[in-house]
Write a structure and sequence with these properties.
Its EC number is 2.1.3.2. Keywords: Pyrimidine biosynthesis, Transferase. It catalyses: carbamoyl phosphate + L-aspartate = N-carbamoyl-L-aspartate + phosphate + H(+). It holds the Pfam family OTCace. There is one protein chain. Helices cover about 35% and strands about 15% of the residues. With about 325 residues, it is α/β, with parallel strands linked by helices. About 50% of the residues are buried. It binds N-carbamoyl-L-aspartate. N-carbamoyl-L-aspartate (NCD) binds next to helix 2 and helix 6.
Length: about 325
């Protein structure tokens, strides 16, 4: 594996399988009364969040703590960043504090690459979401969740059909998933109105469709995406109602899915927009499980990047 995790596209099939297998071992811990392992004792993980986040930030924090790392949480609001400090000076400060891994979320696509490739820090950089670009650990936790339901836990999605539906244009989750799911052998179809598909999507390893009703009866997993209004400047669809009618997942559409098909969403959901409450809370929904799996997957990523020399699990008692 490389020293940084910046893009899902950086992961070879072997890398992805190793992360998923390690996450499966670590996932067992979540069901034990004592969830902590000593694997990263003495290491420092900094969570550097320039953009709002609930799940991703607390998930990385929980992951680092369960591996006994020291965790420093650094949010842009309330720090010197709001006084105009640059990414470079922030990076130098982190370096001075001896960070071993920096987990970064930033509104600008490419910010984690800048941090990793500038020589400002020696630590491993993990992209926790950069602009509309990528969110590789989300893709890993999504793939992990799919393998548990669709492949009996084996780290492969060979021949599985995955539909990713909604605001693909603004979604770093969609891009990272498209890359990783393809690496794991899945067939991905992006479903969106033409205005919400990115230019150049024809170079992604996916099919595209504008017709949700035609795609979902064949899918093994249906991943709904939030309409990211905060990134929209202008009209991408006529009305919210019209959007929901054509691209929302409701009970009527859910009834056309195969029995084994799971429904996913990275969160945060806008209930009533891209997904109705009855679908989000249904038996098929694995949305809460995605959050639980996220901790195990991020533990695996931190453990593997920081080069834990001993096995992650075992020998701790
Ligand atoms: C996503 C994100 O921030 O990219 N959420 C997440 O990390 N779980 C998707 C979104 O904001 O809609």
């Amino acid at each position: 594996m490389k020293r940084h995790l910046l893009s899902a596209g950086d992961l070879s099939r072997d890398d992805a399988e190793l992360i998923l297998t390690t996450a499966a071992e670590l996932r067992e811990l979540a069901d034990r009364p004592i969830k902590k392992l000593p694997a990263l004792r003495g290491r420092t993980v900094v969570n550097l969040f320039f953009e709002d986040s609930t799940r991703t930030r607390i998930s990385f924090e929980a992951a680092a703590k369960r591996l006994s790392a020291d965790v420093i949480n650094f949010a842009a609001k309330g720090s010197s960043l709001s006084k105009g400090e640059s990414l470079k000076d922030t990076a130098l400060t982190l370096e001075a504090m001896g960070a071993d891994a920096v987990v970064v979320r930033h509104g600008a696509s490419g910010a984690p690459h800048r941090l990793a490739n500038s020589g400002w820090v020696r630590s491993s950089v993990v992209n926790a979401g950069d602009g509309t670009h990528e969110h590789p650990t989300q893709a890993l936790l999504d793939a992990f969740t799919m393998t548990r339901h669709l492949s009996g836990g084996k780290p492969t999605l060979e021949g599985r059909r995955i539909a990713i539906v909604g605001d693909v244009l603004h979604s770093r989750v969609a891009r990272s998933n498209a890359l990783l799911l393809h690496t794991l052998g899945a067939e991905v179809t992006l479903v969106a109105p033409p205005t919400l598909l990115p230019v150049g999507v024809d170079s992604w390893p996916v099919e595209t469709s504008y017709d949700l009703d035609a795609v979902i009866p064949k899918a093994d997993a249906v991943m709904m995406l939030r309409v990211q209004r905060e990134r929209m400047h202008g009209g991408f669809f006529p009305t919210a109602r019209e959007y929901s009618r054509r691209y929302g997942l409701d009970g009527r559409r859910m009834a056309t899915l195969q029995d084994h098909t799971i429904v996913m969403h990275p969160g945060p959901m806008v209930r009533g927009m891209e997904i109705t409450a009855d679908v989000a809370d249904s038996e098929r929904s694995v949305i809460v499980e995605q959050v639980t799996n996220g901790v195990a997957v991020r533990m695996a990523v931190l453990y593997l990047l920081l080069g834990g020399s001993e096995p992650a699990v075992g020998g701790e008692e």
